[in-house]
Amino acid sequence: MPKAKSMPPGAAVATWLTTADKSVLFQPQAGTLKFAAAKNANPTIEVDEAKTYQTIDGFGYCLTGGSAELLHQMGPAERAKLLRELFGTEGSNIGVSYLRVSIGASDLDAKVFSYDDLPASQTDPELTKFSLAPDEAHLIPVLKEILAINPKLKILGSPWSPPTWMKTNDASKGGSLKPEFYDAYARYFVEYIARMKAQGIRIDAITIQNEPLHPGNNPSLLMLAEQQAEFIKKSLGPTFRKAKVDTKIIVYDHNADRPDYPLTILNDAEAAQYVDGSAFHLYAGPIEALGKVHDAHPEKNVYFTEQWIGAPGKFAGDLAWHTRTLIIGATRNWARTVLEWNLAADPQQNPHTPGGCTECLGAITLAGNAVTRNPAYYIVAHASKFARPGSVRIASTLPDKLPNVAFRTPTGQRVLVVLNDGAAAQSFNIGQGGRQAVATLPAGAVGTYVW
């Protein structure tokens, strides 16, 4: 590893700030901090770019079908302005670089659907009725507008349920995938990826099932770890290989309380040969479980793919918890992505399926063309704008009450995201290469420092 570079005298640090009381919301701060040979009694966050960890794929949101519908119903000029704000990188735009979409409906679509829905008792193992028509109404047009702004944006696809005719209970909610339809379902993924590609939308990765241990959502599917391993090694992996599909296969996509689930698959060499890594949510379990899965299989990647904020949201608490636990905690435990849940909802947290989430607060609330920015907007912004795809996490020390994470960007900048987790304002040093810059954060505030 190369030695950390010393800071030249007077090197400047730009600061972007969000405060717990919302008096400052992701704003660049006047003036810049300077690196110097400072000596004081402040705690120091020492950044060491000689110690490197995972590469970052991106920070962003889940673009649910409902989110896309609300965006698509905006006026064209208003939507273009908002999408530029979300996905552009210039000025005060926040540079979202990664999206998760649902393969078929999620519970935050207006209705349940798959891409091969049939009357009861009919089957279609050859997928002759496969159609992306439900997504052509809103999701695909919005994705095309987003990709025109950021063509390098990466997209993860996750199904909430296969077509009901493939399931043991013939219903959108619950049930399991019938083994006789493993091959057909593998081809369903291939067909989805190919048809999206034909629309100019590359699917970088898929997970096999959203929350496979939560069959109570609508739509949903129960898929135990042994079943997922069997599906991968007998059907999905060989089908992807035969079709020369380079979309990554990511397992699990559920809570950190069950690391045994992805480990069961990664310990199965026949299945693991097809697997890029594991995805996690955090409605249960500790964020450190991600690091333990990485440590057991350092050759496989780790992703954080979903976390909601419950409406109406509590700005100070949400800002602190999500920054501490996800933006900082997930990346310090090897996550290549951090994705908040739904990008957009209306003021009543609609749309959603019957039985779907009724309290999922969007990163933005859309009432026609009126936009309200909620906690997840700012939480993601503090990382997405600066820790661009291809950035590498670098080492940084952890003084008490100052959780943080540091990155080196592809252009050679250093990025440090810091939360003041204390009850009072705190001055601290950013240290690198023998020099220090003195910063101060109000209680509960988040600062991103770039130099």
Automatic annotation (TrEMBL):
Keywords: Glycosidase, Hydrolase, Signal. Residues 390-449 form the Glycosyl hydrolase family 30 beta sandwich domain. It holds the Pfam family Glyco_hydro_30. Residues 56-386 form the Glycosyl hydrolase family 30 TIM-barrel domain. Gene3D superfamilies: Glycosidases, Golgi alpha-mannosidase II. SUPFAM superfamilies: (Trans)glycosidases. Belongs to the glycosyl hydrolase 30 family. This is Glucosylceramidase. It comes from Hymenobacter negativus.
